[in-house]
Structures are given as C-alpha cells and as structure tokens.
Amino acid sequence: MVGSKDIPPRTEGVNTIILKSMCTKIKFPPKDTNLTSMVAIVTGASSGLGLECSRQMLSLGLSRLIIAVRSVERGEAAAANLRKAYPKAVVDVWTLEMESYQSIQDFAHRCETALVRLDIAILNAGLTQSKFGIVPSTGHERTIQVNYLSTMLLAILLLPILKEKTASSPGRMTIVNSGVSLTAKFPNHAQRPLLRSFDDTSITPWDPMERYYSSKLLGQLFFAKLADYIKADDVVVNIIEPGLIKGTGLHRDITGINGAIMAAFKAITARTLEEGAAVYIDAAIVKGKESHGCFLMDFDVKP
C-alpha cells in the first residue's frame, strides 16, 4: 500500500467525494480478530463514536478499556453499561479535559505511572462551536485549542508510552480527523503569528464551519510532519476520516437554519454509529504498518 504522501492531490469536487463515501462498502473486522490481554484508551468516549468504538473493541475481547472523558459522571454512566455487557473486561473512567494543558499532562503521567501495558490509543475527542470563544487557561480559540493544539499535544505525550508499554509490537495510535479539511479555505494562512490570528475576530472573522475545517487541516499538516519522526516498528500512527455520522454530539452547537440543514443532510447521507466506529477499528486494529503516517478515508489510504 502506498503512503498518503506518495499519492497526487485529489482533484474531485466535494460532492463527488461525499458520493463516493456514501457508496463505500463498510468493512467490519475479520471474525478472528482477538484483542485478549490488550489495553486501549479512547478519548471522548462517553457517547457517540467513542462509546461505540469502545463497545466494538470490548466485543473483540479487549481486556482493559480506559474511557478518557471530561465528565466523570457521564463517563461512569457509559462505563456501567459496558461493564454489564462485558463483565470479563476492566473498564476504567479517567478524567481528561482537552481545554487544559495541565489535565492533558496529568492524564499522560497517569498512563505512564499507572499502566503496566498500553496497546491502543484512539484520540477521538473533538468539537464544533457555533459561537466564538477563548479558552481562559490558554488564550486560544476553543475549536483550534481542542481539535488541534490539545489533540496533538496528547498524541506527542502518549507516543513514547505506547512504544514502551505495548506487549504487542508495535503500539497503535489512531487520530480522528475529518475529510472537511479538504474544503478549508484557511483565510488567515498568511498571518504571522498564525495561531494568534485565530484568537482575534478583527484579524480572522468568525465562521464556525470554516474554523472547524481549519482546525482539522492544521491537525493533518502537523500529523504529516510528526509521522516522519516515528518508526512504524515502534508505534503505527495514522489519521482518519470516519465520514459523516448520525447520532453523535459533534454538531450539537450548530443551531437555527444551519442546524436544520445539517440534520437533513445527515438523514440522507450519514453513516450509523456502528459503521463509523468500524472505520476506527479498521485503522487502529486491522490495518498494519502499511498505514503508518497515512490519512485513511473510506477504509483506504488517501492523499
């Protein structure tokens, strides 16, 4: 399998890409897939794709699951159902606030000190925002903070832990991104300093959808460089587009006419939670070293 960097840029329009995605056959893991003895982390796993991905891994025999969540109460509610369905597995709920660098560092330190083994990390947490907002502790706009800065910090901190603590070789990390990065206009790309230009609406006017697109594009650009420093023999790391999914809270802050349009669009084109989580499983478990450093969309490597 060729890598993402070896493939020429896509020339299809967005509508064509969406149509192809709608027609893609969902690939569920082989029936003999077995995660016995393995330990996995899923961030943002109290609901939606993160929760469904967790359920699917437990159904494949995962021995220990760590649900990393902002709300311990919601996380424990989700974990209770998983424990009931899969009583042989250990399901833990750990706090992770993606708007706090301290919380991210504390979480990584806990992984380093409290876990004897860690095989899989799926970085799923992300958000969209209808209104402009700054994270007080960092001074950065919330969408850029969570989807880009915090996600990539967590990835950097977990990579050496995966390398050290996986009993299977190599460890696995899958970062959830989005194909909407292909449509980002990135209007402030020439601003310097770049990151600060996202924090000031007088420099970069607020557009919630464009901001989400830009946050995902930044993540892909950073990932493309990060992967150059990671050996596939240590940790296989890839980045994925799960497709448009029904039943997630991702677009809960989009209201009014935009919210109505999004709801109608999802009803026609979106995948189910089970289908979307299958994309996670394929990238984090089924795909091998050939997916290292790659952007995966519709179960295949894309540029």
UniProtKB/TrEMBL annotation:
Transmembrane segments: none annotated. InterPro entries: NAD(P)-bd_dom_sf, SDR_fam. One of its GO terms (molecular function) is oxidoreductase activity. Pfam families: adh_short. Keywords: NADP, Oxidoreductase. Belongs to the short-chain dehydrogenases/reductases (SDR) family. This is Putative short-chain dehydrogenase reductase family protein. It comes from Phaeoacremonium minimum (strain UCR-PA7) (Esca disease fungus).
